[in-house]
Amino acid sequence: MVTYNQSPLDHNHGSVTHTSCSHGHAHQCLDITGPAVTSPDGGHVHYSESWVMYEQGHSHYYKSSSGPALPLPNGWHVHDWDFYTTINDGHCHRVSGPDMPAPGI
Ligand SMILES: [Zn+2]
Ligand SMILES: [Zn+2]
């Protein structure tokens, strides 16, 4: 049986969230991150790039990196995200909050 002291690098995270409200609307943001990438402090982060849901006649692109792994009481972890989308149709949106948990701390 394998016990992880650290998050295994072969995992990624999903998230289902909404962007901030801008110009009177928000977009659904359904994201799946890239694999874990070791960071200089020995932990790991994830990168992600995609488009938010096409709504109100336009979409927005984003490319971002996560914060460090945040341990959960059950031995899993999440990452916080905080970034802005590209400007399309004269405005952008902010996306922030944690993603879905993955095994390991
Ligand atoms: Zn992770
Ligand atoms: Zn928009």
Brief overview, please?
The chain is an all-beta fold.
Radius of gyration: 15 Å
Largest sheet: 4 strands, antiparallel
Count of individual beta strands = 10
Label the overall shape. Answer: elongated
**DSSP strand (E) fraction?**
35-45%
Bound molecules: zinc ion
What does this structure look like?
This protein has 105 residues and is mainly beta. It has one domain. The protein is 0% helix and 41% strand. The chain is built from no helices and ten strands. Strands 7, 8, 9 and 10 form a four-stranded antiparallel β-sheet that branches. Bound molecules: zinc ion (2 copies).
Which features would summarize this protein structure in a list?
105 residues, mainly beta, 4-stranded antiparallel beta sheet, two-stranded antiparallel ribbon, binds zinc ion
What is the element layout, followed by pairings?
Blueprint: E1 14-18, E2 28-32, E3 37-38, E4 44-45, E5 47-51, E6 61-65, E7 69-71, E8 76-84, E9 94-98, E10 102-103
Antiparallel strand pairs: 1-2, 3-4, 5-6, 7-8, 8-9, 8-10
The chain binds zinc ion (2 copies).
